[in-house]
Design a protein that fits this description.
With about 80 residues, the chain is mostly helical. It has five helices and two strands. The protein has a two-stranded antiparallel sheet. The longest helix is centred in the first third of the chain and has 11 residues, at about 15-25.
Length: about 80
């Protein structure tokens, strides 16, 4: 899969806030701790965990979160084939 195809797929996919919550709880991290790990505020983490957030999330932020939680970025998407 080339990079253009990956980006196009990711733009169409929906971010799964529920997966973020589950991973956070497994790592026993609070929103504040995760925010500090990625250089964002607790409010930012809280907003993206809200099921009806509906805004785009910067891929750089998502990569930072995936590294902090030690998971592949694909865990956060639904509908990727």
């Amino acid at each position: 899969m080339n990079i253009r195809k990956i980006r196009k797929t990711m733009r169409k996919a929906r971010f799964s806030a529920e997966i973020l919550k589950i991973l956070e709880s497994r790592k026993k991290l609070t929103e504040m701790q995760l925010g500090k790990m990625i250089g964002k505020s607790r409010k930012f983490i809280s907003l993206i965990e809200y099921p009806r957030y509906g805004k785009e999330i910067n891929l750089d932020s998502l990569f930072d979160i995936s590294r902090a939680l030690d998971v592949d970025i694909y865990y956060f998407f639904i509908g990727i084939e």
